[in-house]
Amino acid sequence: MKIKRFFVVLITVTVIFSLCGCTAILDSMTRRENPEEQMEYIWGIDGDTYIYSDKVEVYLGAPGENEDSLYIKCYPDDYLSGEILQGSFKKAAWNDYKIFILMEDTYYMFDINAYEVPADDNTEPVYELKEYSEEEMKKLYPDYESFNWYRR
Questions:
Q1: Which contiguous run of DSSP H or E holds residue 12?
Q2: Tens digits of residue pLDDT in 52-103
Q3: What angle (nearest 5°) sits at the alpha carbon of residue 72, between those of residues 67 and 74?
Q4: What's the pLDDT score for residue 16?
Q5: Per-residue exposure over 6-35, b if at least 16 CB sit within 10 Å of its own CB, e if not
Q6: I want to staple 89 with a disulfide (CB 3.0 to 4.6 A). Which of 32, 68, 102, 109 is the partner?
Q7: Three-class SS state of 8
Q8: Of 133, 116, 114, nearest in space to 124 by CA
Q9: Could you say which DSSP state residue 29 is in?
Q10: According to the model, what pLDDT value does residue 34 have?
Q11: Given pLDDT bands bounded at 50, 70 and 90, which one contains residue 6?
Q12: Which residues of 43-71 are buried (b: 16+ CB within 10 A; e: fewer)?
């Protein structure tokens, strides 16, 4: 009974905040920024979102679901919209403006600084998503295990 009442109160407060334009309060409870990595973190019930340099988004779905995705911003006026990798990510990390994702036995690397958002809606995005084996990762990034890996 107490749990049911808690949810009713929570939903009521959420609706009131939304109607009175107080969404900034809700945003502050679910969003964090990390200026070092030019990253915005958004917590959600169904998954977590990491947005880097306003160009790249890593979405980690709820545990046990194959809903993890890597998106890039495709148009200057659009939000992050182009999915370039989807599946069940084991872990992901940001290091020196590069996103690293481990999925199955393959490491993927996306260089944020090398990617330029197209200047207009008529230009297709040009990007490179590199794939590495564990041996290649050890050779190219000997300290990769010390990266700040995260997983929901």
A1: helix 2-19
A2: 888 999 999 877 666 899 999 988 776 657 899 999 999 999 999 999 999 9
A3: 130
A4: 63
A5: eeeeeeeeeeeeeeeeeeeeeeeeeeeeee
A6: 68
A7: helix
A8: 116
A9: H
A10: 53
A11: low
A12: eeeebbbbbbbebbbbbbbeeeeeebbbb
Given the structure tokens 């973190």, which residue do they identify? 41
Helix (H) or strand (E) holding 73: strand 68-73
Q: Helices (DSSP H) in 20-128: which residue ranges?
A: 23-30
Contact between 26 and 17 (Cβ < 8 Å): yes
Q: What share of the chain is helix, strand, coil (3-state, %, to 5)?
A: 25, 40, 35
Q: Which residues are CB-contacts of 5 (< 8 A; sequence separation ≥ 6)?
A: none
103: left (phi over 0), alpha (psi -120 to 50) or beta: beta
pLDDT for 27: 43
**Residue that has been written with the tokens 């998503």 in this structure:** 129
Closest listed residue to residue 51, CA positions, set 34, 68, 63: 34
The residues near 31 (Cβ < 8 Å, ≥ 6 apart) are: 40, 41, 42, 43
Q: How many CB atoms lie within 10 A of CB 151?
A: 13
